[in-house]
Amino acid sequence: xxxxxxxxxxxxxxxxxxxxxxxxxxxxxxxxxxxxxxxxxxxxxxxxxxxxxxxxxxxxxxxxxxxxxxxxxxxxxxxxxxxxxxxxxxxxxxxxxxxxxxxxxxxxxxxxxxxxxxxxxxxxxxxxxxxxxxxxxxxxxxxxxxxxxxxxxxxxxxxxxxxxxxxxxxxxxxxxxxxxxxxxxxxxxxxxxxxxxxxxxxxxxxxxxxxxxxxxxxxxxxxxxxxxxxxxxxxxxxxxxxxxxxxxxxxxxxxxxxxxxxxxxxxxxxxxxxxxxxxxxxxxxxxxxxxxxxxxxxxxxxxxxxxxxxxxxxxxxxxxxxxxxxxxxxxxxxxxxxxxxxxxxxxxxxxxxxx
Length: 355
Prior knowledge:
- This protein has helices at about 1-15, 70-80, 135-145, 155-160, 165-175, 185-200, 205-210, 220-230, 235-240, 285-295, 320-330, and strands at about 35, 45, 250, 260-265.
- By secondary structure, it is mainly α.
- The chain folds into two domains: about 35-200, Cytochrome Bc1 Complex, Chain D, domain 2 (Orthogonal Bundle); about 205-330, Cytochrome Bc1 Complex, Chain D, domain 2, CATH 1.10.760.
- The strands form two sheets. Strands 1-2 form a two-stranded antiparallel sheet. The protein has a two-stranded antiparallel sheet with strand order 3-4.
- Strand 1 (about 35) and strand 2 form a beta hairpin.
- The longest helix has 13 residues, at about 1-15.
- It is globular and about 65 Å long.
């Protein structure tokens, strides 16, 4: 009996503490989210639209931006994004609303759909009404919102992070001086979260492969749908302008439940972002196409007003043409695109469950 007790005590002493946190190291490699690593080790977007390519139907040139991100900062932002330490009661994280399997968008009863974060690096404004023009403003609002993260102040968030030795160590690794004694600042939090959000880039859907020369990337129906999408009859591409499939404008379209002017959403990864429209009025893309074909906000199911955009009017596509347009929209989704979900967090808190 004495030997048994002694061996049990020895095992308990040698076993790691259940409360101890496993050290987390930040990745020095760029995530597989539409980025490549340059010779200096920075992460940059894989961006095939730096020049007009009329040979393969890629008529739109994407604005050149010097997006240069550190992989360690992206990874720290990823951990923060999934960590409920950012919320007042430790139960909500950014990912609670921006769900990875829904292209970092989401739905909430009684509220507008959560704006997606895909290709946010190219957006000049944030939120549905475009009220924020900086990353700091875009990140601050949900943290201080009483119906989201519920924090009373930014200082309360920084206090929690600065009391966490794991986060103190991780933030020190992305500083030039590596000083672990420095307090974590708001600008550092913004830089990490903004870097992660900017890393969510995709230009690798079947559509992209087609316009860049792979004629087999789209089916015949999708090719006809692309022609309809770009046609004068539908004018879809005038608002959902390739290659981002948004023009970032604030427009009134009169979708059910929403009469205000709101930002044109990107159609990238659209197969994963239903239900559709700002209020989630439609369950399927077929429903969306039919709504706009019938006249959108000017149809019997819409909300029309004097500010409704002039493009919104009955289109007149046949049932077959509507399906071809739906088929094309499916080609804007890259099913292989994903973000690695953390298995553990620096705070030691339980990761928020995701779909």
